[in-house]
Amino acid sequence: MARMSKKEKELHLLLNPKKVGPVDPAKLKATKVKRLNRSTGGDVLIAVILGVFGLFMLFPIVFAVSNAFKPLDELWYFPPRLIVRNPTMKNFIDLFNLMSESWVPFSKYIFNTLLVAVTGTFGHVIIASLAAFAISKHKFRGQKVMFQMIVLSLMFSGAVTGVPTFLIFSRLGMMNNFLVLILPAFTSSLGLYLMKQFMDQMINESVLEAAKIDGSNEFNTFWKIVMPMVKPAWLTLIVLSFQGLWNTGGTVYIQKESLKTLNYALGQILAAGVTRQGAAAAAAVIMMILPVLVFVFSQSKIVETMSSSGMKD
Amino acid sequence: MKGLILIKKQIDHKRPSNAKETTVSYLFILPYMIGFSIFTVLPVLISIVFSFTSFDILQPPKWIWFENYFRLFFADSIFLTAIRNTLILAFVTGPVGYMLSLLMAWFINELRPKVRALVTFVFFAPTISGNMFLMWNLLFATDSYGYLNGTLMRYGFIITPVNWLRNPDYMMGIAIMVSLWMSLGVGFLAFIAGFQGVDRSYYEAAAVDGISNRWQELWFVTLPLMKSQMMFSAVMSITGAFSVGGVVSALFGDPSQDYAVHTIMNHLNDYGGVRFEMGYASAIATLLFFIMIGANLVIKRLISKVGE
Fold first, then answer.
1. What residue in A sits closest to B114 (Cα-Cα)?
2. Number of domains in chain A
3. Which residue is closest to A17 within chain B, CA to CA?
4. Nearest-angstrom CA–CA distance, A80 and B71
5. Model-level pTM?
6. How close does chain A come to B179, measured CA to CA in Å?
7. DSSP string across A220-250
8. What tens digit of pLDDT does each residue of B103-132 get?
9. pLDDT, tens digit (0-9, with 9 covering 90-100), for A4-48
10. What is the mean pLDDT of the segment spanning A110-134?
11. Domain spans in chain B, listed from the N-terminal domain onward
12. In this predicted structure, what is the pLDDT of residue A132?
């Protein structure tokens, strides 16, 4: 069934009606006005399930946001309350005071993290798109094998190869260098995979041929014609890559305090435990803001990219 | 006419593989392939080779054949616990997380566009919020200020606080719950997109054809059209389910009490990051690598049979 084209499918449905008998035109009209095959009971059930799971998903986040604004007496209130009564900014001020006490200024952690996240994301989008374009639209030897390897690499987590990666970096003399965080991000296989699938579906051969006849070289075609057409795809890559890099710790590779990232710095505060839970909640909220904003702004584009994410056997 | 012939020629020789064009193609993939080889392929190969050695970084590796693997299976009872825990976690959070992604995406698809965007965000939020899972630490905190303990004590369910994160009776349950909380990731987005990509005319045709409720519609019409998204999400779910580790050590400490939620990833980090027994750690990594790839290939087989 799934392999049929749309036309074949319609034909199939026409030729093999499961219910034999005339279709009541009134009924047909009624179903057209209302949504098809939707019972009110089902709607209610779905609303309830979505509500329950939605609360479950949101609960820790609401708790964190609420805690971030709780004054001290409310944080220690027994029994604990979920929602803050008298919101205050004190936790955020405490957090910044705590951070400025450390001998590396807080702004340095933010700068480090932004540098890593922005460079890594930018490089990833360019490098993965270049490769995706060649794999999707060119013909060359080893192309199939290459894509198979990339699909295979989606099937295991990079965390598995932590040990050899560590050895490689130390051999390359890249310890205490942002490159250890940035370079692997450049070649994330998920990004290349999504980009390639999107190009397969959205870029028409005839456009490329036309560009070629007009005398455009491959790189020019890629940069001026293909990239603008796959905007939803690279927005998706930006969201996924940025979110990963923003939350990166990298403490195994980077021991120098002045090179550490926000995730590490805020983790130190969280590690202090319950005594600093107000500042910890504030830290968690601050960490969350940027990835959330990036996601919200590009959400509709992400859905577009993902529609071509499918994997064939 | 001449132009037409020219165009025809171009189309006939769609991307001919002459030397110059091939060079251009290789230039396009070169930067990616260099990085991919060094940071993805090479580590896997090194891992496999080192798994046959004894290596502590200070001295050169010594070839010991299968000794690491014998030790894993016959002399390391904690590893067997780790395998058991990882399999339990993977077999619960993998399929359940996958079904959750599918069902939630399907339900969300019924909503109006504005609401749909909001609800999608709510469900995806745990994935983008980074370290937010640490909030579960506070919710399950051991003293009476922990949210769960406080609430249960207030209503008289318990009298003394329960040590949720250190009591092996509860730890696995909590680990599964937190993993599920984080399981709606990229695969979930793929499902959302897949549902939106189904042409309405299929539903209309199916309704005429005798499909009489939304469940039948899902099973007989929608899912067979979404096979490729199902495959992609499955790969994401499985890979995620087997690599649970960081969350566990952040919530339960490392090692966790009685190794009750100790996973293969935790074991790997223990030997690779703490004890610097790199050969042994590589053996663990190699095993986990093949477990992940194997599970993914099996699932691919299964899904390709859907609707046949």
1. A300
2. 2
3. B209
4. 48
5. 0.84
6. 12
7. HIIIIIIHHHTHHHHHHHHHHHHHHHHT---
8. 999 999 888 888 888 899 999 999 888 778
9. 555 555 555 555 544 444 444 454 444 444 567 788 888 888 889
10. 94
11. 76-304
12. 95
